[in-house]
Design a protein that fits this description.
142 residues, alpha+beta, three-stranded antiparallel sheet, 32% helix, elongated
């Protein structure tokens, strides 16, 4: 534990070097959290420190989380890469009936399918929206 606490200076240096106002770390061992620490600010202007309830924007990292989680479920035999998402989330409803029926676990994990938001034209990963809202947005394969 003293080695983990010794990371404090290094974490502060990382915040300074990267321009990150704050960060949190957690260490798990054998399924239990053995150490947490929070550094810097969640709101610099207001002087609010990072705490255990600070929410971080992780942007594109969600793609790797989804792919990893799906890989674990495939390894455990709970789904296959070809399992239709509609079988897992019956409430899935898109503008395109074929997409709704054929969208697979592999499609979500590979991030080849995206939503094109009409207001910006920007591509947004599938996992960003609730499945009940999907009907409002057309899909695109880049």
């Amino acid at each position: 534990m003293s080695q983990l606490r010794a990371l404090d200076d290094a974490m502060q240096s990382i915040c300074s070097a990267t321009g990150s106002p704050g960060l949190s770390i957690g260490v798990a061992q054998a399924g239990s959290i053995i150490h947490t620490a929070h550094y810097g600010y969640r709101d610099v202007e207001k002087g609010l420190l990072v705490d255990p309830d600070t929410a971080y924007g992780i942007a594109s990292l969600t793609k790797s989380f989804v792919a990893s989680a799906m890989g674990i479920l495939v390894d455990e035999g709970k789904v296959s890469w070809t399992t239709p998402v509609k079988n897992i989330l019956p409430e899935l409803d898109t503008q395109d009936a074929l997409t709704t029926e054929q969208l697979s676990v592999a499609d979500l994990s590979s991030a080849i399918l995206a939503l094109r938001f009409p207001t910006t034209g920007g591509m947004v990963p599938m996992g960003s929206c609730c499945c009940k809202r999907l009907k409002r947005f057309p899909f695109s394969t880049r």
